[in-house]
Amino acid sequence: MNLFSNIWNHPKTSAAGLLIAVASVGGVLSQQGVTLGKVGTGTVVSLAGALATALLGLLAKDPATGSEGASRQGSTAKLSAWMLIVLLVPLPWMQGCSAKTVAQDIVNWTPSLQSAVATVDSTAAILAPADAPVFAAATGGFDAASNLLVVQAKAYLANPSASLLAQLQTQIVTFQQQVNASILQAAKIVNPASQQHALAAIQGVATIVSAILSLVQSISSKAQVAGMASKSGIKFAAVEPYLNRSDSARIVAAHYGEPVEVARAQVVQTEQMQIGAGF
Question: 32, 63, 253, 256: least surrounded by Cβ within 10 Å?
Fold first, then answer.
C-alpha cells in the first residue's frame, strides 16, 4: 500500500520517474534496432523518447508561488536535475549529433585522459614495494594506448571518414580491454592500502575510456557496435564490483560542468547501454 500511496501523494515525481524510464528504455530499444514501426521519417521508439523528454521539460517548469512555492523549491530543483539527465547527457542513442560534433567531444576528453594516465604512472611510487611491480606491469600499456587514441581522435575530427572511424573503434575497444584487465590485476593486490590506491588510479582512466567508448558507439552502426563488442573478452560485469560510481560521476560532472547527481545517472545509463550492446 505504501507504493500506491507514494504515487498518489507525489504524482509529479512519479510521472517524472515514468517518463525517465520511457526515455531510457526507448534508448536501449533504439540501440538494439527495435523500432516498433515507423512514424513519418522516424520510429515509434524515437517518438516516445522525444515525447517523454518534452513532457519532462513541462513538469520541471510547473510554477508554484508564495509559501507553497518556497516549500516546493527543493523538490522542483531535484526534478529539474532529473530532466537534465535526459537533456544533457551525451547518450549513444541521441539523434541529430553529427560525426563532427561527437569527434570534437572525444577530442575534448583527451587532455583528461592523458592526465589520468599520468596519475597512473605516478601511483606505483606510493604502493607497497611488493605491489608496485604488479601494478606497473598491469598498467604498462596505458601510455601507448592513450597516445594512439588521442592521435586517432584528432585525425577523425579533421577527417570523419569510415576508415578512420574503423581505426578509432578498434583502438577504443583495445584500450578498454587493457583497462579491464588492469582492474582485475589490481584487485588481486592483497595490501588494502595499495589496492585502494591502484584501483582509484585506474578508475580515472576507466571512466574516461568508457565515456569515449560511448561516444564512438553513438557514431557507429548496429553492426559495427556488435563487431566491437565481439572483441570485448573481459565484460563490464567482471570489473563492475571494483568500480566506484561516485568517483566516475565526479569526473564526468567536472568535465561537462554539471551537477554530480546528473553525472551519476549518466554513468549508470552509459553502463547499461554498454552492457546491452555486449561489452
Answer: 63
